Every structure is written in C-alpha cells, then in structure tokens.
Amino acid sequence: MTFRSLVDALLGRKRQEPSTRSVQHVAVTPRLSQQFELPAQWALQQEDEHIAVFRNAVGDVLTINFFMAVPDIGAPIDDVDALRAFYRHTTEAAGLALVETELAQLTTLSAVRTLFKARMDPIHGFAFVGSYTLPFADRSYVIKVQSVEQGVTGMREAAIMVLMGPPEIDEITGELIGWTQDPYDPGYRAEFMRNQADEQKFDAQFPDHPLSKVRRYLAELESGVRVDPAIRGLQPFSYPAQEH
Prior knowledge:
Structural class: alpha+beta
Shape: globular
Number of strands: 9
Largest sheet: 7 strands, antiparallel
Distance between the termini: 39 Å
Radius of gyration: 19 Å
Strand content: 25-35%
Helix content: 10-25%
Strand order of the largest sheet: 2-3-4-8-7-6-5
C-alpha cells in the first residue's frame, strides 16, 4: 500500500473531478514546502504540485498532500461523533484499523486529526499513520506522518499482555476476549481493530515504538507547524447537510 493510497483510504477518496462550485479563489504559493513550515527535524526529499515528501533522521516519513477537489468528508467538520463514524467506516472498508479521530486546530485552522494502523504482512508487523486534514470549500491539504515497525515486532503487545495478565480466550472464535476494541464504541466489532496495547498511556514505556513516535510527531505538528497566511483566506469547508 503506497503513501498516496493510504491517504486516499484515510479520506475516503474516490476518483474526483475538479470543483465547479463558485468559491473564493486566493492566490497560494505553488510550492507546498513553502506553504507549511514544519519542525526542524523534517528534511525535504522531493515535491511536485500535489505532494511534498520529507524524512527525519530515523527514516520516518512526512508528506504534505494537496487535493484540488471538493473534499468528500462525509460529516460536519465540527461533529466529532459523526467524523468518527465516517472514518471508522472508511478505514474498515480499506482493511485498516481506526486508532483515533479527534478535532484539532492547526494555527487556528480547523482540522481533523486521525490515526490508524495498517497491516504490512504477518512478518513485518504494522505501519502507523497519523494525519491532519485541512478541508476547504474546493480543496484540501493533508499533513501525514508514517512510521513502520522494523526488526522484531510485537514486543509492545507482548509486554502489555504480561502487564495486564493473560486475557481470556473465546472458546468458539479463538479470539482474545476484550483485547481488540474500537476506541469510541465498545460494542463495535470488525475483522481488524486496534488493541489495548495501542492506548496512549503506554507510549511513555515504548518511546521508540512507531505508534508512540507518530503520536509525538502529531503533537509537535499541532504546536509547531506554521501555515502560509494565504491559506487562511480560503473559503471554509461546509458539509452538504449544512448548506441552505
């Protein structure tokens, strides 16, 4: 799964045509790396008009993605419960697991903060992808960070199981009872879900784990990213149900 397809899955994007809606157009600096000032650890690798790719010293990846199309986020931008339902459905359909969906602010701009995990394969563990989505009336920007498990995997899960005690096993399904769960709806079930080891309270014990790093990168972005003032002049995103 490529970075771009991970973003598409995150946003629930299908093939989109350029917007034909009448919106306010504001001149924006063409280069994405100039529109967003990132924390110093991220070094630019390459960019075009749609994506700028950065890496840090440990090899993790950050991308700034630009979509010149009306965002197809299926919920109001200020309704966290509706957003969670939308991203839960989107990630499950793509074979991903939802870890977090929250409302956020990037330098006073409304954003959606998401975090999910993807199975690489049975041997190589998981990739963790965190994003801030900045939707506007006719376009959107996504700042995405990704870290992948390397070497021996499953150490975090094994340590948390020892800490919590061995979970019970469902005699019919063979699943560990209560180990996997939706972050917001205890009654929701899916084939692939986050597990208890993914909870943020364990990050301090595993600071170099990909999930801990992605959460740390997201926190650094929320407090440290700077956005080109021209972007602030763009017309805000409005969910269709809100329009009159």
